[in-house]
Amino acid sequence: MPLHLLYCSPTLYTAEDKQNLSLAITKLYAMLPDFYVVVNFVPIEDQYVGGVKRDNFLRTVVHHLAVTTPDTAEGNVKKTAFMDHYSATLKPFTLDRGISWEAEVIQSDPVFWRMDGIQPPTTLEKERLQAWRDAGTPLPRL
User: Fold this and answer.
1) CA-to-CA distance for 6 and 85, rounded, in angstroms?
2) Considering only CA atoms, which of 18, 24, 56 is closest in space to residue 40?
3) Which of 13, 30, 96, 139 is spaced 20 to 30 Å from 84 by Cα?
4) Helix, strand, or coil here: 103?
5) How far is Cα 2 from Cα 32, in angstroms, rounded to an integer?
């Protein structure tokens, strides 16, 4: 699952903005079932950047569990490409509105991940992954 934690002022985005941003983030993960992608807007009343209160700042922490990328030269190329795509996805919701932002991605071991108590299929388990995508929910192993 990619879990996106978006820390911002509670008034930074409207409900419609949040819906649209969540959908845009979900589209980044076309290879995964949509229900894998979780976006949480975490309201921060008092956010300080460099010791100065900032209401027009978005702090994003992304946890990647479903797909992790190795720390190799090839992996770093993929990571950079993801961050470039992520930046382009956030731009209409941040820089284009005069909102500064910062993001980090944390990769977690997928062995420690369960959905409804079931270990999700890896991206190598194409048939099982497709079954989950088609069902729109976790499915037990048969």
Assistant:
1) 17
2) 18
3) 13
4) strand
5) 10
Would you state the structure tokens that stand for residue 110, as one six-digit string? 């997928």
In whole angstroms, give the CA distance from residue 31 to residue 125: 12
Q: How many CB atoms lie within 10 A of CB 5?
A: 14
H/E stretch holding 126 reads helix 126-135
Tokens 């979900």 -> residue: 26
Task: Give the per-residue pLDDT at 123.
Answer: 83
**What's the sign of the alpha-carbon dihedral 77, 79, 84, 89?**
positive
- Cβ-contact 58, 8 below 8 angstroms: yes
pLDDT digits (tens, 9 = 90+) for 16-49: 999 999 999 999 999 899 999 999 999 999 999 9
Q: Which pair of tokens denotes residue 117?
A: 């108590």
